[in-house]
Design a protein that fits this description.
The complex is a heterodimer of chains A (92) and B (865). Helix content of chain A is 10%, strand content 36%. With 92 residues, chain A is mainly beta. With 865 residues, chain B is α+β, with helices and mostly antiparallel strands. Chain B has 7 domains: 104 residues, 2Fe-2S iron-sulphur cluster binding domain, sarcosine oxidase, alpha subunit, N-terminal domain (Ubiquitin-like (UB roll)); 129 residues, FAD/NAD(P)-binding domain (3-Layer(bba) Sandwich), CATH 3.50.50; 101 residues, FAD/NAD(P)-binding domain, CATH 3.50.50; 67 residues, Orthogonal Bundle (Arc Repressor Mutant, subunit A), CATH 1.10.10.1100; 163 residues, Gyrase A, domain 2 (2-Layer Sandwich), CATH 3.30.1360.120; 88 residues, Alpha-Beta Plaits, CATH 3.30.70; 89 residues, Elongation Factor Tu (Ef-tu), domain 3 (Beta Barrel). In chain B, a hairpin with an 8-residue loop joins strand 39 and strand 40. Classes of the chains: A mainly beta (92), B alpha+beta (865).
Chain lengths: 92, 865
């Protein structure tokens, strides 16, 4: 791999500066069934096409961000910082 | 023997250079290559071929073909035709058993033919199966080219450099130079990569030479091999000017010593003033080939015949030889005596780099060449690589030699003959990509430079179709041979050292690696150092611990979501041991969490886990978006652990705070001055004795260390290393992440159920741990005590009735207890106090008893005292 990845903070950089953390998954909001838990922990869609995924600028600004990357061509269509989301577990 | 001075000769006759071939001295001149100097000394046979061990001589003289590969100063596969001579170099032939003149393995050529057809290694030497070790030994010995000197060590240093430029021009020929000049004139920043030529600046642009672009990779990355430096280029525009490659003709006997490509003759005469031979025949598809008659005449070689394939293509062409050397050429039945044959099938654009970059390659039937057509953006082709070439004839796929018996080579690298290609097709390898893999044609050192187009032509003829239909095989990097050392780069061993590092070295500590950290293993004797902590007072540098500050209104909530533990009920100034897990329930790290304020926590991690934990924290908060921030203090803070029964007395002398058991009790965190240095004191007990971890700014490291040793001298203070710490923690059954746990371990089965507060609404790993509890334990982490004193190997098997029932994760001899102790994962039915288990030790079996409570101070009385 030698493509360039645009960090939302630093701009285009060699992919070797980044850590890849896989496709975006969604943590269950409520206690999952055994099957749902397995699916969340172990299963990935592994698409041949545009995939939304996590990247970390490890040898740079140390920021986590999201990218839309075509897994067939390594073309990066978009990168952005995550939005404070509905994923946060409810306060007790 | 040299010719009189030639107009453009490269050699400096005033500067002789001496090197050695097979131990015998050879004289050359400055400007010679090893190959030209050997040629001057009379040598014509330069190598033995890969499979049949046939004699081979100079063919291309341009560093493309495999015919001149030798071992130079221990480095295998050096193309001596382009390797400059250097004083004292030791040159040896390779791939021979004996010498170039008498190679015992040449028997393969005489007798092995019927037994070594294409793909023989897939079919023969398979049965009987029991013979495979014998076959393998034999095959490994004769396969491969060259020998690596196992004792050479790292004789060369390789570096990698990342570079940027506006325009990168690949190829220093006429077109490449022109492109570089005009781009530079337009004010662009230009770097030119040239296989030959001299390095430096050429007017307004930089020249890297001798250097080779080894490919155009994804994203336009161009790695350039410059000998001992690999430049990784990123350019806004890549100009490919790699020129064209002369193609050999395919006819019986076409690999005989004395058959040349035109460029070889041109260079021998023009650059090194050498006479190629006495009598020459030229067969060429273009003017460039025919034009070497000039060079030959100047050299005094008698040109017997010039055959222009455009005008008078012969129906039959074959070369005859004796002992591997050309003696005559047979053209349509006429035998022409000669010792050199210049044979050229015209030139083919060297488009590989363009194809790698994504260019489309199309067959130009009129000219019989493959040309790049649609180029990717930012990539440009100039000169002959773009197809700008003089007209040439399209040569026959192969020439019949009538009744001539010589082998007809398509690929000289891998010794693939026309017959092999035909056989592969007959066997069903009817796609060029499959036939390539089966016959290995184009897969040798020349990487298709000389065999790709001939193979396609032959394929097209056998299939009764045209070259366009057959198409090219996929071009992949590397385009040029590259040494593994260059790809590996320099042996970087980035070491992290604590601010107290030099004190350990001065004290004569044995240093060891833990992750990237350099740490003291022990100072004198690990066992004694451990004993001394129990009896008096020790100090260990624990600056390597990961140290994070977590603060903000949501800090408590954040940590309670990340850890199975509860923190909300923890008072400010208290400490709790925590274990981090994943949603799969797996343990990933452990450490202590001290509450410094309502919204502020000080978190320590394992020494090697710090970076992972920080990334983990920040990743989760990128999802959750809680109002909390994490600050990594690992490098900015140093830490030491002062431990042993006398540690309170020492701390009392230095700290500006009441150090009594009420002043700082077990699991208290206190910020105060120690020896005048602002410190965070954590009273924790990883090593099992009364102890205090002092965390303070790194620059005070040596001062603090020295002060502790000075003020503790009368208490008998002694530094202890990582190994004694491992003994001490094992006595307490404190786990080491990665040592006692692996990627399958969870806190419940690891024997720490009190950590997981499953009544919390949510935390990372909660659901998985609930599942573990539901399904029941499959194995458990327990301690064990050996019946006799033998220490089992870590990783050793626990056996039950002759079958595996677990594995040892840690084992040490405890001087304090006078016993061998350890920890192990065992089946749940064995996880009961005092159960007798058996452990494989040195081929035999030793018995041990299971322990569930710490071996030392099981109730923690020492820790709390």
């Amino acid at each position: 791999m030698s493509f360039l990845l645009p960090c939302p903070n630093c701009g285009p950089r060699d992919v070797n500066e980044f850590a890849y953390a896989g496709e975006v998954t969604h943590r269950p909001r409520t206690t999952p069934s055994q099957q749902e838990l397995s699916a969340y922990v172990y299963f990935r869609r592994n698409v041949a096409g545009v995939q939304r995924e996590w990247w970390y600028h490890r040898f740079g600004c140390e920021l986590w961000f999201l990218a839309d990357r075509d897994t067939r061509t390594n073309e990066v269509l978009r990168t952005e910082l995550p939005q404070a989301s509905a994923e946060t577990p409810a306060a007790r | 023997m040299r010719l009189p001075q030639q107009p453009n000769e490269r050699i400096d006759r005033a500067r002789p250079i001496r090197f050695f071939f097979a131990g015998r001295p050879v004289e050359g001149f400055e400007g010679d290559t090893v190959g030209s100097a050997l040629f001057a000394s009379g040598r014509r046979v330069f190598s033995r071929s890969f499979k049949y061990h046939r004699r081979r001589g100079l063919l291309c003289c341009s560093g493309a073909c495999p015919n001149c590969m030798m071992q130079v100063d221990g480095e295998p596969n050096v193309r001596v035709c382009v390797e400059p001579v250097r004083e004292g170099a030791q040159v040896h032939a390779q791939n021979v058993l004996g010498s170039l003149e008498r190679d015992l393995l040449a028997a393969v050529d005489h007798f092995g033919g019927p037994f070594t057809p294409v793909g023989f290694y897939y079919r023969t030497m398979i049965r009987p199966r029991s013979m495979w070790p014998v076959y393998e030994k034999f095959l490994r010995n004769i396969a491969g080219l060259g020998r690596l000197d196992k004792h050479a060590g790292r004789s060369r240093r390789f570096d990698t450099e990342h570079r940027r430029t506006e325009v990168l021009v690949i190829g220093g020929g006429r077109s490449g130079l022109e492109a570089a000049r005009s781009a530079a004139a337009a004010g662009r920043q230009v770097v030119l990569v040239d296989e030959r030529g001299a390095p430096g600046a050429n007017g307004d642009f930089e020249v890297l030479a001798p250097a080779r672009a080894i490919g155009i990779y994804e994203g336009g990355l161009v790695p350039v091999d410059a000998g001992s430096v690999l430049y990784r280029f990123r350019a806004e525009r890549i100009v490919v000017a790699t020129g064209a490659l002369e193609q050999p003709l395919v006819f019986p006997g076409n690999d005989l010593v004395g058959v040349y490509l035109p460029e070889a003759v041109r260079r021998l005469v023009d650059e090194w003033s050498l006479k190629p031979g006495e009598r020459a025949v030229i067969v060429s598809a273009d003017d460039r080939g025919l034009a070497v008659a000039d060079q030959l005449e100047r050299a005094g070689t008698n040109v017997v015949e010039r055959i222009d394939l455009r005008a008078t293509p012969p129906r039959q062409l074959a070369a005859r030889g004796r002992r591997g050397r050309l003696t005559s050429v047979v053209v349509d039945g006429r035998e022409l005596e000669c010792d050199i044959l210049v044979a050229s099938g015209g030139r083919q654009p060297a488009y590989s780099l363009l194809a790698q970059a994504g260019a489309r390659i199309e067959y130009d039937a009129g000219r019989g060449i493959f040309v790049p057509s649609v180029l990717p953006p930012n990539v440009e082709a100039v000169g002959s690589v773009a197809g700008e070439m003089e007209p040439a004839a399209v040569p026959a796929a192969s020439f019949s030699g009538a009744d001539e018996v010589g082998r007809c080579f398509v690929c000289v690298c891998e010794d693939v003959t026309q017959k092999d290609m035909k056989r592969a097709i007959a066997e069903g390898f009817d796609s060029i990509e499959l036939a390539k893999r089966y016959t290995t044609v184009t897969m040798g050192p020349c990487q298709g430079r000389l065999c790709h187009v001939p193979a396609i032509r032959l394929f097209a003829r056998e299939h009764e179709t045209d070259e366009a239909t057959i198409g090219t095989t996929t071009a992949r990097p590397p385009w040029a041979p590259v040494s593994l050392g260059l790809l590996a780069g320099r042996g970087h061993e980035p070491a992290k050292r604590t601010s107290i590092h030099h004190r350990h070295e001065e004290a004569g500590a044995t240093m060891m690696w833990t992750g990237l950290w350099r740490r003291a293993h022990s100072y004198e004797h690990a066992g004694n150092e451990a004993l001394h902590v129990h009896r008096a007072l020790g100090v260990i540098d624990v600056s390597t611990l990961g140290k994070l500050l977590v603060q903000g209104p949501d800090a408590t909530r954040f940590l309670e979501l990340l850890y199975p533990n509860r923190f909300g009920d923890m008072k400010v100034g208290r400490i709790r041991y925590g274990v981090l897990g994943t949603d799969a329930g797996r343990i990933m790290d452990d450490g202590t969490i001290a509450r410094l304020g309502e919204e502020q926590y000080y978190v320590t991690t394992t020494s090697t886990g710090a970076d992972t934990v920080i990334e983990w924290f920040e990743w989760w908060n990128a999802i959750w978006g809680l109002d909390v921030e994490t600050v990594n203090l690992t490098g900015s803070l140093a830490a030491v652990n002062v431990a042993g029964p006398r540690s309170r007395e020492l701390l009392g002398r230095l700290a500006d705070v009441d150090t009594s058991n009420d002043g700082i009790s077990y699991l208290d965190a206190k910020e105060t001055l120690v020896a005048g240095v602002p410190c965070l004191i954590l009273r924790i007990g990883f090593v099992g004795e009364l102890g205090y971890e002092l965390h303070f700014a790194s620059p005070y490291g040596e001062y603090m260390w020295d002060t502790l040793l000075e003020y503790g001298a009368d208490l008998g203070i002694r530094p202890f290393g990582l190994e004694p710490q491992r003994i001490l923690r094992l006595e307490k059954m404190h786990i080491l992440i990665g040592q006692d746990t692996d990627s399958e371990s969870n806190v419940l089965e690891a024997g720490m159920p009190w950590i997981a507060k499953l009544d919390k609404d949510d935390f990372v790993g909660k659901w998985a741990l609930e599942h573990v509890q539901e399904r029941g334990f499959r194995e458990q982490l327990v301690g064990f005590e050996m019946t006799d004193g033998v220490v089992p190997a870590e990783g050793g098997q626990i056996v039950l009735g002759g079958r595996s029932a677990g594995r040892v994760t840690s084992a040490r001899l405890s001087p304090q207890l006078g016993r061998a102790i350890g920890m192990a994962w065992v089946r749940p039915e064995l996880a009961h106090e005092d159960t007798e288990i058996e452990i494989r030790v040195n081929g035999g079996v030793a018995s041990a008893r299971v322990r569930l409570k710490p071996f030392f101070d099981p109730e923690g009385a020492q820790l709390r005292s």
